[in-house]
Amino acid sequence: FVQNHPDYETVQMDLVEGSGSKNLLTFTFTRSRLLLAFLIPDKTQKSIQLAFDALESAIGHRVFKKLFRLILTDNGTEFQNHQILEYTTGGVRRAQIFYCDPYSSYQKGACEKNHTYIRMFLPKGSSFDWLNQNLVNRMLNNINSVYRPSTNEDAPFSLLSPTLARMVRVLGLVRINAEDVV
């Protein structure tokens, strides 16, 4: 599929689990390494679907379909019913989801690397129950403002397509000056 659609960006999707009930649904755009994260109340397929629906509602179906054409994720139980994620409740296709091979997290390495940045703020074993989306966005603003070797010493915020930049603004994310990054 990727070979037939070289212009499609792969978006890597995963879940970062907290020790409480709340978790983070994450998306990494492979070209820019932009990280998005959405706080979800639990690790159910329904919560993932509701996060997809809310994101699509915020940015619009056309933009969602353009940015999330190709999603790569793992075989976690929360992602098993790909149809509720690929299609809107009205039955309109909004994305295509593909799965990594079992025990092959390296197949979505950009996502896994972004998770190491999240763990600098939220160590493994910590609860996310005290978080709200505004605090998650502040964390994302810092992470996406970091200059990285994988992006030729640019920050993800420096590498956004115009459509991706508009989505970032709609979601309330903003770049932080390098000297102010936590």
Structural account:
It is a single chain. The protein is α/β, with parallel strands linked by helices and 182 residues long. It contains 6 helices and 5 strands, in the order βββααβαβααα. A 5-stranded mixed β-sheet has the order 3-2-1-4-5, sandwiched between helices. Strand 2 (23-29) and strand 3 (35-40) form a beta hairpin.
Give the key terms:
single chain; 182 residues; alpha/beta; five-stranded mixed β-sheet; 6 helices; 5 strands; 33% helix; 16% strand
Q: Which residue ranges are poorly predicted, with pLDDT under 50 across at least 5 consecutive positions?
A: none
Which sequence of SSEs, written as H and E, runs from N to C? EEEHHEHEHHH
Q: Quick check: average pLDDT?
A: 94
Q: Helical proportion?
A: 25-40%
Structural class: alpha/beta
Query: How many extended strands?
Result: 5
Task: Summarize, please.
The protein is α/β, with parallel strands linked by helices.
Question: Would you spell out the secondary-structure blueprint of this structure?
Answer:
Blueprint: E1 10-17, E2 23-29, E3 35-40, H1 45-59, H2 61-67, E4 70-73, H3 82-86, E5 96-99, H4 109-121, H5 133-143, H6 162-170
Parallel strand pairs: 1-4, 4-5
Antiparallel strand pairs: 1-2, 2-3
